[in-house]
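fyi for ur records
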Amino acid sequence: MSDKWRFLLVVAALVFPLEFLQAQPRLTSSTSGASGRLDGENFVLEDQRNRFTFPQDKSLIVYFEWDADPGDYALTATWKDPAGKIGFISTDVRMRTTSRKLRAYWEYYLAEGMPSGYWQVEVRANGQPAGSHAFELVIPEAARETAKKAPAPPTLDELYKLRASIVFLHRHAADGRVLDTSSGFVIRDGRILTAFQAVDGADHVVIEYAGGRKERVDRLLAWDARRDWALLPASTDGHPPLQISERTPAIGDRLIVFSVEAELTRVIGGIDLAGRVQDRQAGELLHLNPNLPFAAVGGPLLDEFGKVIGLVIGNLLPGSRGPVLGMGTSPEFYNRLTSFNRVLPIGAIPAEPAPGEGLFSTLVEKGVFVRPLAPHENFIAAGTARQTPQEDGILRAGEEMARFSRRDPQVVLMSLWALRQKQKRVEGMVSAKVHATDNSVRVAAPPLLLKLTKTLPVRHTISFSPSVLPAGIYRVDLEWDGRTVWRTFLEITE
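which gave:
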């Protein structure tokens, strides 16, 4: 089966996704139709039928209901063509139910070149068979002939030559530390396009071209932090620009991406366009499956002919990209806030973006860049809670929090500091700032002098009222003499 029509999209599940627990549901009904809609918590399937004709029908929906014990489930759909060959296996849809109703639906996008006949979708729940549904697909001969005459796309081996236009960007701090590594690509002669987070907070970046040549850059030509793109000047001689695709990819299309493996090894492979999501600040984004590694952010998403469909971006939360040891957010909360499978469509980036004042040092001073974490040898740990521990000053399991209500009396930021061996005295000004997602400062705790004269840990606390903050996600930076030594993220609810 051709990769051209690996087109399955899990559109929705009518319960909340969580970890699963083994439980075997009983199929009570399965139906298909040309369209459907959500009505509260219920899904209404419209124009119900089992026969679909392309191109009059662009897609179809298959809807399942089961009787099942309340609990955790993972649903997987396998789609088989009339010959019984597997055309696609969906990613797991994980969900938790609180009633005996277990419901889910999948939308199936049709394409020319697919075989006519009776297709079947088989669903497994927690790895066990949970029912199936058959439907008839009619693809006119003319559509199949058109598909046969279409030019064959290049092979992956041929497309791999495009790596000459793709670069690594090493983000450096002012003290010379390499903060992390991302990707970028030549979009025009003398221009490198990358994700904004690939340069955010840097003193400078080092562009590493295929072949090993390196170039230091400390300014931007244009950028949009909210949409996570940035344009850098560069000496790109010998590295041709990638071509821009004019097509709009369909859900389920098999696209091409350059990923990154151990020791910054550049690899190429196929990746599925699993959906589209609407982000409040970035607009429409493409959703890939599976996730890409950290270093692939900033690279291109390509169509089957090697032309740019979009820019691979990561999370859109300023300051959340950095060393894990300097972060205080729980993995569960951090994973919910971040994503490395989103793509900004290339059409969302202006062909001729308006230039800006792009010196990295200026962007830091203006608060456009988030200052990177700067390790401090006397810092031990920190955390946030509703109240200060009364005994030994250590936050225990269940006391540290990342989610607060505006009705809570306070948010307490507690930190521990201590002298290192052979140190006799260390002092500095400790403060904290609470930033909104636009990087503006919403709360600023005044600096207080902290003196360390003993090797035993010294506790320092800062508190503020959450009632001054609208509901949303906030970044909290703990500072020593103006340098950010620790960072966490909070969610404020009503």
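The helical segments are 141-149, 156-159, 331-337, 360-365. thats all i got for now
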